[in-house]
Amino acid sequence: RVRVAPFWIDPFPVTNAQFTEFVAATGYRTVAEMPADPADYPGLDPAHAAAGSLVFRPTSGPVPLNDPAQWCRFTAGADWRHPSGPASGIDDLMHHPVVHIAHADARAYAEWCGKALPTEAEWEYAARGGLDRAAYGWGNELCPDGAVRANYWQGQFPWLDKGDGKGTTPVGAFPDNGYGLGDMIGNVWEWT
């Protein structure tokens, strides 16, 4: 059991528009935008010393789920501005959550806003939306009355997605939880 003191939390994940504002004001460069220093990573394949990030690539069929390398590939040039690789962009994704952000990047953004990342306990409390021991932030049924309540993989991961298959969704695309918070479940992983 864990107790949390009262706290404030933003109603949605940080969007590309918000992160763009932060970068414009500070000139900040994310971890994915900087090449790795091989001295920090003994044995690093020089091809992976380039600036970049892991990008999800669906497989053509079922694969063992104990090897993320089957569906994630290091992609040089992938970063928050280029979520699928160097040829992609975020112009049409400004209201989507920012991705390819390392913990240090999330912390820097929060500090710039005069905020802090939530603790894991705070995040869990907020995600439950006031429900106790419910399986989801909206109750015990994944799709009440057939309604999808979050952006998540629907089908056989990592090759068959019966959802829209388009990656992230704009923040606020699904109903808020009991605390008025959106996207606490699904869409993207969040830093604590």
End-to-end Cα distance, whole Å, is 18 Å
- One letter per element, helices H and strands E, the order comes to HEEHHEE
Neighbour order of strands in the largest sheet: 1-2
Q: On the 0-100 scale, what is the average pLDDT?
A: 94
> Roughly how many Å is the radius of gyration?
18 Å
Uncertain ranges: none
- The strand count comes to 4
The largest sheet, given as strand count, sense and whether it forms a barrel, is: 2 strands, antiparallel
User: What share of the residues lie within helices?
Assistant: 10-25%
Tertiary shape: globular
Number of helices: 3
Structural class: alpha+beta
What share of residues are in beta strands?
Answer: 5-15%
Concise overview:
By secondary structure, this protein is an alpha+beta fold. It has three helices and four strands.
Characterization of this structure:
The structure is a single chain. By secondary structure, this protein is an alpha+beta fold. It contains three helices and four strands; from the N terminus they run αββααββ. The chain has helices at 16-26, 103-112, 120-128, and strands spanning 52-56, 72-76, 155-156, 160-161. β3 (155-156) and β4 form a beta hairpin.
